[in-house]
């Protein structure tokens, strides 16, 4: 069994209707009563020490899947197992071995708590350090993420975005996790800071032997740091495989379109920027198309695609893809 | 500490608010030290003489001292009675405000954190209560519970906790959605710790604002109840009752019995409200220059 296994996880978000809204809906008023399937029957596995990249457009469910793996959201169906142990029981997280680094370091730190205390409170609560040694313990992690340990007495508003993200990383790592979920950890940072944080992340991953799930919409970052990657579209995984192989020969039409949509500078030609936006709009998640969710936008769609949802299956080249015609697609 | 200093520096810039704060502090000190300042203990019935009743300001009574603000229908020195009245008003207003703050904030934050049925139950009761006037509930409760300080505070708390619950609920629901709460829950930390160390401190600014305004409201509610004869016993007149006592004499030229306690009440309430407004403006980033 894999170190992390995501077993047929589905997560729905139903509208929470008040009594009045329920009555209005009964009387035929226009009240949204449908649920959204943010994550739809996803099965994944990550080996120990490996990093899985989770990519897709906004709203594809990658953050929701990350939160389910992290034990923040309970799955509606299915289970997440870490080393064979469930991450959640009911709606309660029952392990400290999974920790999360959030996207926005301006929101993920309590503005009224000194950063040293924010790093120390989890380890103290779970007995990873004694209260008397907490300051030393925190100083160790501050040094590890490249912060001056003397800054532990400051408040979050006294730090820059990059420094805050270092604090957030220290807070997650101080819990001594085996699995780190990074939910777009560099998306809200300046480009010049992004590289620093990515490098810090790579160093820490190597030194601590971390297993990671790295959620991003930045394909170049994923290519740089992930061993494997999974591509999501409207709640389903459409392709999964070795990062390099997926980039070199995408097996799913959506992956192809996603990779082609990355802007590219062509320096020696006339064109300075070239990219091919994906045709059409993402369908409403309330009412996803029948069959393959990608069929309205897919240039290769056939009748079968409009009727039957393709399962994620193993292709001869070791790739997993959810496409009926993955082997028959024209090259390129 | 640094935040507090910055807050004070900004507060000081508003001269009117600063003056109001001085008034509040001054009146509070006068009220606290009333027994040391006043020439007479107005609650000691044996020290009162009906010969001195309803005398105008400046009258020298049987006690041998000048009644600066005149005397009331029982022969009390009005200045003494006002200071003692302020003492009671501030005591009751503060006690009722703080107890209502504690209960209301607890309920509001609990409702926001727990969600679901608990939220539904708490907030519907609060909404129901906010839909009719606080004074009505206070009147009914005082009538049911009887006279006395504790009963009066109880009635005021019951009438006012809903405002705190609403405010705390509003602040907590918006804070609750933020990442730092999610991060704390995902560590995982115990719910009690998430609520007390993370949610509560971030909900305090609006609660402080409402608390200032509600303390002023408790004082005026108490005065209203006393004016209607439902507050404290007649032997210990609070400001409302002093006003009520002088009311029949207003038209016969003995204005001072009602007017001076009324002025004292208004000055206190207006001053607290100005201070409260300034605190609210300082906490509201959209009003920042």
UniProtKB/TrEMBL annotation, chain A:
PROSITE patterns: ABC_TRANSPORTER_1, ABC_TRANSPORTER_2. One of its GO terms (biological process) is transmembrane transport. Its main location: membrane. Keywords: ATP-binding, Nucleotide-binding, Transport. The keyword tRNA-binding does not apply. SUPFAM superfamilies: P-loop containing nucleoside triphosphate hydrolases (SSF52540). GO terms for cellular component: plasma membrane. It is a peripheral membrane protein. Residues 4-259 form the ABC transporter domain. GO terms for molecular function: ATP binding; ATP hydrolysis activity. It is found in: Cell inner membrane. Belongs to the ABC transporter superfamily. This is ATP-binding cassette domain-containing protein. It comes from Pseudooceanicola pacificus.
From TrEMBL, chain B:
Keywords: Cell membrane, Membrane, Transmembrane, Transmembrane helix, Transport. It comes from the Bacteria. The keyword Secreted does not apply. Residues 86-276 form the ABC transmembrane type-1 domain. The chain crosses the membrane at residues 16-37, 88-113, 125-146, 152-169, 255-276. GO terms for cellular component: plasma membrane. It is a multi-pass membrane protein. One of its GO terms (biological process) is transmembrane transport. It is found in: Cell membrane. SUPFAM superfamilies: MetI-like. Belongs to the binding-protein-dependent transport system permease family. This is ABC transporter permease subunit. It comes from Pseudooceanicola pacificus. The lineage of its organism: Bacteria, Pseudomonadati, Pseudomonadota, Alphaproteobacteria, Rhodobacterales.
């Amino acid at each position: 069994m894999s170190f992390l296994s995501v077993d047929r996880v589905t997560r729905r978000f139903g509208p929470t209707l008040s009594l009045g809204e329920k009555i209005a809906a009964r009387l035929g008023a226009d009240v949204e009563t449908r649920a959204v399937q943010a994550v739809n029957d996803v099965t994944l596995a990550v080996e120990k020490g490996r990093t899985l990249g989770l990519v897709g457009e906004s709203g594809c469910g990658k953050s929701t899947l990350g939160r389910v793996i992290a034990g923040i959201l309970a799955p509606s169906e299915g289970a997440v197992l870490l080393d064979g142990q469930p991450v959640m029981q009911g709606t309660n997280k029952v392990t400290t071995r999974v920790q999360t680094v959030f996207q926005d370091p301006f929101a993920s730190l309590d503005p009224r708590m000194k950063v040293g205390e924010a790093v120390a409170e989890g380890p103290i609560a779970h007995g990873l350090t004694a209260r008397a040694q907490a300051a030393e313990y925190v100083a160790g992690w501050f040094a590890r993420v490249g912060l001056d340990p003397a800054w532990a007495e400051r408040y979050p508003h006294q730090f820059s975005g990059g420094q805050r993200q270092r604090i957030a990383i220290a807070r997650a790592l101080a819990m001594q996790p085996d699995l780190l979920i990074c939910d777009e950890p560099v998306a809200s940072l300046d480009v010049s800071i992004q590289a620093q944080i990515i490098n810090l992340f790579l160093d820490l991953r190597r030194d601590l032997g971390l297993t990671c799930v790295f959620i991003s919409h930045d394909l170049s970052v994923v290519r740089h740091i992930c061993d494997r990657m999974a591509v999501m579209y409207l709640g389903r995984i459409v392709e999964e495989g070795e990062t390099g192989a997926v980039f070199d020969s995408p097996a799913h039409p959506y992956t192809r379109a996603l990779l082609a949509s990355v802007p590219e500078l062509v320096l020696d030609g006339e064109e300075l920027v070239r990219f091919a936006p994906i045709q059409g709009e993402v369908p409403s998640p309330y009412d996803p198309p029948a069959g393959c969710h990608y069929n309205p936008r897919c240039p290769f769609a056939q009748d079968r695609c409009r009727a039957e949802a393709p399962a994620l299956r193993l292709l001869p080249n070791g790739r997993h893809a959810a496409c009926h015609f993955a082997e028959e697609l024209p090259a390129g | 500490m640094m935040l507090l200093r910055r807050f004070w520096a900004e507060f000081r810039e508003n001269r009117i608010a600063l003056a109001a704060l001085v008034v509040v502090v001054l009146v509070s000190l006068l009220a606290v030290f009333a027994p040391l300042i006043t020439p007479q203990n107005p609650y000691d019935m044996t020290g009162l003489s009906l010969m001195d009743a309803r005398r105008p300001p400046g009258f020298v009574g049987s006690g041998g001292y000048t009644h600066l603000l005149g005397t009331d229908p029982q022969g009390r020195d009005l200045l003494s009675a006002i200071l003692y009245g302020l003492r009671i008003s501030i005591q009751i207003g503060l006690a009722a405000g703080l107890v209502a703050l504690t209960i209301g904030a607890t309920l509001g934050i609990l409702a926001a954190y727990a969600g679901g049925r608990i939220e539904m139950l708490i907030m519907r009761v609060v909404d129901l209560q906010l839909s009719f006037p606080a004074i009505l509930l206070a009147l009914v409760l005082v009538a049911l519970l009887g006279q006395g300080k504790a009963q009066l505070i109880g009635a005021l708390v019951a009438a006012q906790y809903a405002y705190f619950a609403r405010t705390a609920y509003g602040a907590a629901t918006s804070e609750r959605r933020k990442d730092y709460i999610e991060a704390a829950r995902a560590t995982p930390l115990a719910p009690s710790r998430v609520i007390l160390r993370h949610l509560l401190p971030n909900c305090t600014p609006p609660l402080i604002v409402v608390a200032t305004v509600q303390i002023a409201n408790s004082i005026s509610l108490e005065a209203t109840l006393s004016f209607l004869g439902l507050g404290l016993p007649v032997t210990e007149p609070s400001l409302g009752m002093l006003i009520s006592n002088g009311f029949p004499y207003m038209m016969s030229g003995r204005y001072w019995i009602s007017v001076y306690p009324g002025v004292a009440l208004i000055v206190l309430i207006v001053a607290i409200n100005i201070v409260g407004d300034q605190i609210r403006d300082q906490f509201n980033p959209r009003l920042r220059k």
